[in-house]
Amino acid sequence: MSTHPARIVPWVTGAVYAIVLVAGLYYVLAGLGTGGHQPARLAGFVAGIALLVALDQVELRRPSTRRAAVVFLAARLVLFFAVVALDESSLSRVLFVLVPFGAYLTFGRAVGLTLGGLCLGLLVAGFAVWVPGWYRDANYVSDVLMFGLGLIMALAMADVAAREARSAARVAELSVATERNRMARDIHDSLGHHLTAISVQLEKASAFRDRDPAVAEQALADARHSARRALEDVRTSVGTLRSPVSLRTALASLDVPVTVEGTERDTAPATVTALYRAAQEAITNARRHGGAGSVSVAVTFGPADTRLVVTDDGAGFRPDDDHDDHDDHAGHAGFGLLGMRERAALLGGVVDVSSEPGTGTRVAVTIPS
Q1: At what angle do helices 269-288 and 193-208 cross, to 10 degrees?
Q2: Whole-angstrom Cα distance, residue 266 to residue 82?
Q3: Which residue would you say has higher pLDDT here, 258 or 277?
Q4: Across residues 309-319, what is the average pLDDT?
Q5: How far apart (Å, rounded) are the C-alpha atoms in residues 359 and 353?
Q6: pLDDT tens by residue, 202-237
Q7: 292: how many CB neighbours lie within 10 A of its CB?
Q8: CB of 344 within 8 A of CB of 274?
Q9: Is it the case that residue 6 has pLDDT exceeding 80?
Q10: How many CB atoms lie within 10 A of CB 87?
């Protein structure tokens, strides 16, 4: 069990308190009881409800710990007994339904069920002591049945709430894992190829420093250019996270021919990022590993999806083997293609790769609108 127990949603207890208060006042004001002649009892009843509301507010402002939960449950029980004793209508017995409900959320299923059975047992025992032959009175039997039904409903609601809380915790864990994977893909897709280019150019500059200074100088210039592109890419990524960016604008920075069909609407930032990274990765693979002389990008904005196709005339490879290190292209492209598929899958999209050795490569990414 967590060291930070769950709490009853405030509006639940507030709604129950309001119903009990209205029912008790109606019982007195309609002349169904003697509360009009016992103003102190009526005032005590109203004060008891007010104290329950105040207790909830105090609990909300304190750290949620097991010890505090026990203290507040005990205080709530004392007030429940006081309110029931002061309520002529006896309708406030419904307050005890909150006991197993709250205990289920705070301490778990076993405690909730145990307290639910205990509350029902106390009601039956109370009738047995103060109302002899109660089981032959339809009104009292109905009270027991309705109270039992209320307990079942409360426990069922608590079970649903507990399951939702566990699901929310699981979703949070998965979100953290997904974010880690996303960051890994971003590092690979955006910075990886720039850093690789910088490393290659610096090695080239070092190798030609004495033999051909002009070539070495050009290599240094290319390395500086790659560094600037890396910085620009980081800024673009941050900007995309902060505010929506059109896909057309993002693709314009890739220095390849881009054709667009259809009208771009309010494309979701996640979709823009996924398609932009896919285009960037495909272009990098085509040039660096496929030796492509020509690379082009085509985007189609359809009514139900957005489709991006990157085509090159490079060396090509066998997509079925892109996870193996069978050649330089596939060995380097494997993680990038995997990243494309994972990123597209998160948005309900698909990636299709068509290629054969010597025939170039066609990468198509389709993401639903």
Answers
A1: 30
A2: 59
A3: 258
A4: 87
A5: 13
A6: 988 888 888 888 888 998 988 888 888 777 777 766
A7: 19
A8: yes
A9: no
A10: 26
Contact 222, 197 (CB under 8 A): yes
Domain, as residue range, for 314: 246-369
Q: What is the pLDDT of residue 239?
A: 59
Query: How many domains, the chain?
Result: 2
Q: What is the mean pLDDT of residues 96-117?
A: 87
User: Tokens at residue 107, please?
Assistant: 């301490």
Sequence-distant (6+) residues with CB within 8 A of 359 are: 316
Beta bridge partners of 33: none
Please indicate, yes or no, if residue 116 is contained in any of the structural domains: yes
Q: How many angstroms separate the most distant Cα atoms in the chain?
A: 112
User: Residue 308 sits in a domain of what CATH number?
Assistant: 3.30.565.10
Q: Give the pair of three-digit tokens for residue 171.
A: 């979703």
d(Cα 322, Cα 330) in Å, to the nearest integer? 5
For tokens 């009175």, name the residue: 137
> Is position 277 within any domain?
yes
Q: Where among 130, 150, 177 does a domain terminate?
A: 130
Round to whole Å and give the CA distance between 236 and 23: 62
Q: Report if residue 114 sits inside a domain.
A: yes
Residue 51's pLDDT band (boundaries 50, 70, 90)? Answer: very high
Cβ contact 264:303 at 8 Å: no
Using an 8 Å Cβ cutoff, are 88 and 28 in contact?
yes
User: Model confidence over 154-178: pLDDT tens digits?
Assistant: 888 888 877 877 776 675 566 556 6
- Is a pLDDT exceeding 80 seen at residue 11? no
